[in-house]
Amino acid sequence: MYSFDYQRADEAKAAVAALSTNGDAKFLAGGQSLLPTMRLRLAQPSALIDVTRIASMKTITLDGGKLTIGGAMCHAEVAANADVKRALPGLADLAGRIGDRQVRERGTIGGSLANDDPAACYPSAVLALNATVVTDRRRIAADDFFIDMYQTALEPDELITAVEFPLAERAAYEKFRNPASHFALVGVFVAKFGDGVRVGVTGAASSVFRSAELEAALSKDFSVASARGVTILPDELNDDMHASADYRAHLIPVLAGRAVERALSFPA
User: Fold this and answer.
1) Within 10 Å of residue 132's Cβ, how many Cβ atoms?
2) Which DSSP category does 232 fall into?
3) Which of 85, 113, 207, 264 is deepest in the core (most CB within 10 A)?
4) Structure letter (DSSP) for residue 155
């Protein structure tokens, strides 16, 4: 590690102002990706602006048909929150299976989304649930937020303050995890709404994506058999030391079926 300045922000506006005055600074949301990168000298920011103590970003509210989670809420807090477990049990379940206990106690939803690791769990839920990412200056629809590997629609000095989730009729996540990192080799989140089904897939490509084939099949018949009957082409999927593109293509409908089964097991 090397020397750097550390600042703790009390509000979002102050955090953004501090970052704007120092183009070489970074937000510190949980540090689960940033700090290892710094230790390897792949990133060398001159300052870290800690946003994890901003009170307005440390709340979870359930209002009618919308669940709002503050950007600084760590995974363990999301998993344990009574409103999340009642309104979107599939999201609470996902948060409770991210990484290991230490990661869940430090990593935050805002930090995960801003980093946009291609194998992270949260992006699949945000995309499938048609969530809205709220920043210090605008609202970004999930379909417009994720661009490519580690690339989002965020500006360099833009801070995620909250994420708004519509409430699905049924929703759940299933993943085949890498035994070493606990990241998703493939992860699938399914969300059933009154007007159809959305499916977010992570770990299988350079960035999270929606599966039109699974959405069409599950919108007609929200069942395990329907999900497993879908064929996914491997053409644009990852092919690496962990799994071939063909294997990932095989896993997607299998995991989608398991996610449907899990979704149907939660209280309606």
Assistant:
1) 19
2) -
3) 113
4) -
